Amino acid sequence: SLPNRVTIIEVGPRDGLQNEKNNVPTEQKLAFIHALQDAGIKEMELTSFVSPKWVPQMADAAEIVKLTKKVGRQFVLTPNQRGMDAAKESGAKSVAVFVGVSNSFNKKNINKTTDEAMGQLEQPIKELIREGYFVRACISTAFYCPYEGKQRVEDVLALCQRFIDYGVHELSVADTIGKASPKESHELFYLLKQAFPNVLLTAHFHDTEKMALANIFAALQAGVDRFDSSAGGLGGCPFAPGATGNVATERVVHMLHRMGIETGIDEEKLNDAYQHVATYVSK
Ligand code: HMG
Ligand code: MG
Which of 64, 93, 141, 190 has a CB 3.0–4.6 Å from the CB of 222, allowing a cystine? Predict the structure, then answer.
């Protein structure tokens, strides 16, 4: 049976904008974020504390966090201790970390193998949790890798288990390049739900093959009630060639509402929110 209510985690200000070539002024990002909050978004990835040489668009991370209204759960994405220190310094209370299932992807994205990345994250994640931060782990390339192709389900489960052992509160499992089919979505999320019943489980779909809504419906049927999405369908990882934007929040919300599933989000205000950054987006 389907859930009565679904939580949307808006990733537009982070995943959505990170790949945009045009520099979006900080004030416009803040207007976007606050309009999304006003539309009823309660959980959001605001920005990322990554190397500005790798991802110039996120260079204003500290300012974004400092100037964002503190309501709901506002995440910042961090790859390492340095990012976590900057996140704490900025006043963030919820941190997202990210590692892919695929070694080759991790080398391109964070210049580390999967094992190196997990090794360097163990103590900092445990420390964040001891200090009361909310930690979400984003599992990239859980279906396909742009360099290695199809990933093994056993490897996805093993990586998730490692994050669970570190104590994370949430797993956000991602179809980084938007290649999963609804059958694969149902199979993986069904297994994940059985394997990790006590953690928040979120599905993160990119929409390259335009199957993201179908993948979400399949994941809903597997028991998932949390979805990452991006206003306007913005987004993509700069180090995952071929990936297009995240599934558009307005399309997910509309589909859910049409099925009688509550999200707490106002569709009209949501559409308006995207206008704050629309003119900067090169499409
Ligand atoms: P590196 O070059 O191997 O590391 O990069 P380094 O330690 O040698 O540092 C290089 C420079 O970056 C140094 O500065 C560091 O100080 C600095 P320099 O001495 O050259 O002036 N630095 C930092 N600066 C700011 N914040 C930091 C930080 N760390 C080091 N945290 C590194 C390694 C991880 C830094 C780099 O590879 C990086 O920043 N990667 C980020 C890539 C990224 O943001 N990808 C997109 C997000 S993931 C994604 O989109 C997928 C997701 O949506 C789920 C899905 O769809 O799959 C989450
Ligand atoms: Mg993504």
Answer: 190
